[in-house]
Structure formats: structure tokens, C-alpha cells
Write a sequence for this structure.
């Protein structure tokens, strides 16, 4: 049986069990709405375009924050790889900061930027930059010495050695860093939007929670999960596999 068929059957059975459990156990919709109620909320949200409006707002913030994070991560990663002093000082700080969840920065972000777009963008950038920096730095540090020695025998040195040998050799790590940065940015976006003034999926989730609309809460949670899986499976995993295959790293 194909994996896709197995997954469809699994989620179909899960939804049936969920629906039956809610009916048989007479669970209050305020605690756990039935799947039919959740899908009704989804249909209503897309029909009146409110969810589309929130989705577009979230993706706009994500695109801006992720683009800034990837650029910063790339520059910082190269800087750490090329400077031993920076690696031993700034590098240790970046590793320490990576262990701090993005949502922990929210109070400071609100104090620094106010309850606005800038605070949410700051959280996204912070969440994604660190993982991109570490991956880029690791990629450059792990370029096989044989490549460098071979290039040096062909008179590659300085910037030409970096641009034509070291940077291309670190591309697989950069792609992995981009994929991880997307995941971190997506989580950070949802955390930031929970305290934003909207619009956005995170803001809509908080709005629905405040008004006790659990059907809409679960509907948005499902959207967040589905979007995360779709983007990762259909884009980042394919790009990563393609790069790994091209660089001869695909097993």
C-alpha cells in the first residue's frame, strides 16, 4: 500500500473516531468541537474571505522576516567561519541565544518596538537568523581540506577560493539551514501574532479563543499544521533532495 493511501486512511479513521467520540461522550463544543463543526468554521472563514485575509497578512510578514533572516544568517555564518576570534566570541553567543525560544523575546520586542508589525518581524528574524547562521558557518567549516588544497594548486586563493570553491561546497548546509529557518520563522510568526493587533492567523487564533470559538481555534491550528507540512514537503524537502543529489550526498 502506498504511503499516501496509508496516511489518507489514518487521518480518515482519526476524524471518524473523533466525531463518534464527541457524539457518544456528549462532549461540549466549548471543550472539543466535532470535526464537522471545525470544517464548517473553515468553510465559513474561506467563504467570507476573512481567513484568506489573515493568511495573506501572515505570509507577507513571513516573507519579509525570512528574507531578512536568510541574508543576515548568510553574512554572519561567513563571518564566523572566516574569523576565529568572532567564532570563539560571537559564535558562542549565537549558540546560547538559539536555546532561547522566540516567544520569550516577545515582552522585550513589544517594549522596544511597540505592539506593531516591527515587533512581530523582529521575532521572526531572530528565530530564523540564528539557525541559518549556524548552518552556514558549519558548512564553510566542513569544506573538505582536499578541495581547498586542490584549488590552491590551481592558483585559487583569497576571494576566488572562497567564491568558487568554499561557498559552492557549503551549499548543502545552506539549503538545510534555509529549510530549518523556514520552520523556525513559521513558529515564531504564530507566537508573535498571538500578541499582535492583527490581521494574521495567530491573531485570529487569539481572537477566536477570547470569544470561546473552539471550532475556529482548531480550524486555524489545522491550517497552521497543514501549511507547515505542505511547504516543507512540496518545496524545501524537494529542493534539499535535489541539492544533495547534485552534490553527490544523496544515499
Amino acid at each position: 500500500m502506498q504511503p499516501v493511501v496509508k496516511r489518507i486512511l489514518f487521518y480518515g479513521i482519526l476524524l471518524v473516531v473523533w466525531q463518534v467520540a464527541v457524539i457518544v461522550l456528549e462532549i461540549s463544543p466549548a471543550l472539543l468541537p466535532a470535526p464537522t463543526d471545525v470544517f464548517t468554521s473553515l468553510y465559513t472563514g474561506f467563504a467570507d474571505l476573512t481567513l484568506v485575509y489573515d493568511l495573506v497578512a501572515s505570509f507577507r510578514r513571513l516573507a519579509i522576516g525570512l528574507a531578512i533572516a536568510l541574508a543576515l544568517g548568510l553574512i554572519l555564518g561567513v563571518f564566523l567561519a572566516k574569523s576565529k576570534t568572532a567564532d570563539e566570541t560571537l559564535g558562542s553567543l549565537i549558540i546560547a541565544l538559539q536555546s532561547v525560544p522566540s516567544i520569550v523575546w516577545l515582552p522585550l520586542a513589544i517594549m522596544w518596538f511597540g505592539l506593531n508589525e516591527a515587533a512581530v518581524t523582529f521575532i521572526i528574524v531572530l528565530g530564523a537568523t540564528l539557525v541559518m547562521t549556524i548552518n552556514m558557518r558549519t558548512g564553510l567549516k566542513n569544506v573538505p581540506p582536499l578541495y581547498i588544497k586542490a584549488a590552491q594548486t590551481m592558483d585559487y586563493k583569497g576571494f576566488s577560493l572562497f567564491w568558487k570553491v568554499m561557498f559552492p561546497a557549503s551549499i548543502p548546509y545552506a539549503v538545510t539551514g534555509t529549510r530549518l529557518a523556514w520552520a523556525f520563522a513559521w513558529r515564531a510568526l504564530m507566537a508573535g501574532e498571538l500578541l499582535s493587533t492583527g490581521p494574521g492567523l495567530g491573531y485570529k487564533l487569539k481572537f477566536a479563543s477570547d470569544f470561546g470559538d473552539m471550532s475556529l481555534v482548531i480550524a486555524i491550528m489545522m491550517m497552521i499544521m497543514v501549511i507547515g507540512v505542505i511547504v516543507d514537503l512540496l518545496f524545501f524537502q524537494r529542493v534539499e533532495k535535489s541539492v544533495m543529489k547534485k552534490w553527490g550526498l544523496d544515499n
Observations:
- The radius of gyration is 22 Å.
- The chain has eleven helices and no strands.
- The first helix runs from residue 3 to 24.
